[in-house]
Design goal:
52% of the residues lie in helices and 8% in strands. It is α/β, with parallel strands linked by helices. It folds into 3 domains: 8-112, ATPase, nucleotide binding domain (Nucleotidyltransferase, domain 5); 120-206; 211-352, no CATH class. The chain is globular and about 70 Å long.
Length: 353
């Protein structure tokens, strides 16, 4: 929606300095300026008459948008995926980017796919889960390094979980590699302890959110997945229908339809990749040999059995998408989940209503 009763300011956020372009009420460039990307720099410049400020989502956008709102400005945070006119331009500079942000914001903010940032508390709680994920990723890289190193000496280490890797493999390392790999094993021991502590922290954080128990009723959805899902979506009322959450999390197939051509494409991968990966892992468990019987498992296995290239992989992603929709539905309604017959009962209730 266009609002030209106030000035529009495009602010291209840089790590150290940000470029400013001010458009007057008639759309003419009124001012260009470079300011420091600090709280002091932002507050010093934006202590002015209320304006519509357009910034692009990024590492600084959450705190900058908060500062600008506190100063009384209307703030639009542009989705980076929706501003191809800027990222793909043939004359891309920070000055031009700031002007394009202002002009797009002045024309119609819907063109920018506005992003709503989480509040500081939610962001801090989500950071706990993401820190654990980084620790697990580091551990995996170290484990792979050890396996690859000993393989070059003709030794193959046994299959085991990452948690038990150090305990089960250290004595099998060739003597020639002891000096090289001892520091790696010490680092693994330290990371294992840090992961355990992170798990305890996640349990403590999860207890602050009663709805974690609601969305984790589904077999295969653990506390971590449930918590990250809630914190990523943040507001259960943001979607008119639960099925919209799949697109929000980037699990809807992309479209490139033109004329009679409508090829089958992969998912968009928009939104948060962390929660998407957790949902796919949960789907993998649901479809795996230890998955419990449920409507979701039956549907996914039937989809995978159709054969064709990448059928199992696509079934896993499709189950992850349905899982996200189901979790949101349970979150909104607070219903008790019954794994078999749940969807049929939902349809019957809709018909009765």
């Amino acid at each position: 929606m266009t609002n030209n009763t106030i000035e529009t300011i495009g602010c291209d956020l840089g790590d150290k300095r940000s470029e400013i372009c001010v458009l007057d009420r008639d759309g003419n460039v009124k001012e260009r300026k470079s300011i420091r990307t600090t709280r002091e720099g932002m507050m010093g410049y934006f202590r002015r008459e209320a304006a519509h400020v357009v910034i692009e989502v990024g590492g600084h956008s959450r705190w900058v948008s908060q500062v600008l709102k506190e100063l009384g400005h209307r703030v639009t945070v542009a989705n980076a995926r929706r501003v191809g006119l800027i990222s793909n331009g043939d004359n891309k500079t920070d000055r031009h980017d700031a002007e394009w942000l202002a002009r797009l914001g002045r024309a119609d903010v819907k063109l920018l796919g506005p992003v709503e940032h989480r509040d500081a508390k939610t962001q801090a709680d989500l950071a706990v889960a993401k820190a654990r994920d980084e620790l697990v990723t580091a551990r995996t890289r170290l484990v792979n390094h050890v396996r690859g190193t000993v393989k070059s000496f003709g030794v193959r280490l046994p299959k085991c979980s990452a948690e038990s890797f150090a305990r089960q493999t250290r004595e099998r390392v060739p003597v020639e590699l002891t000096a090289a790999l001892d520091p790696i094993y010490k680092a693994l021991a330290s990371i294992d302890e840090q992961v355990k502590e992170a798990d305890r922290m996640i349990e403590r954080v999860a207890r602050k959110y009663a709805d974690v128990d609601v969305v984790s009723q589904i077999s295969g959805v653990g506390v971590l997945t449930a918590l990250v899902f809630l914190l990523t979506v943040a507001d259960k009322q943001r979607f008119a229908k639960s099925r919209m959450v799949g697109a929000y999390l980037g699990m809807r197939p992309r479209r490139n339809s033109s004329g009679e051509s409508d090829p089958q494409l992969g998912i968009s991968k928009a939104g948060d990749g962390f929660v998407r990966r957790l949902l796919v892992n949960a789907a993998n468990h649901i479809l795996g040999p230890f998955g419990k019987d449920s409507d979701l498992r039956r549907w996914g296995l039937a989809l995978a059995s159709r054969g064709g290239k990448n059928a199992k992989k696509r079934a896993k992603v499709a189950v992850a998408r349905k899982l996200a929709v189901l979790m949101h539905r349970l979150w909104v309604t607070g219903e008790v989940y019954e794994p078999v017959g749940y969807h049929q009962r939902q349809l019957e209730r809709k018909r009765a209503a």
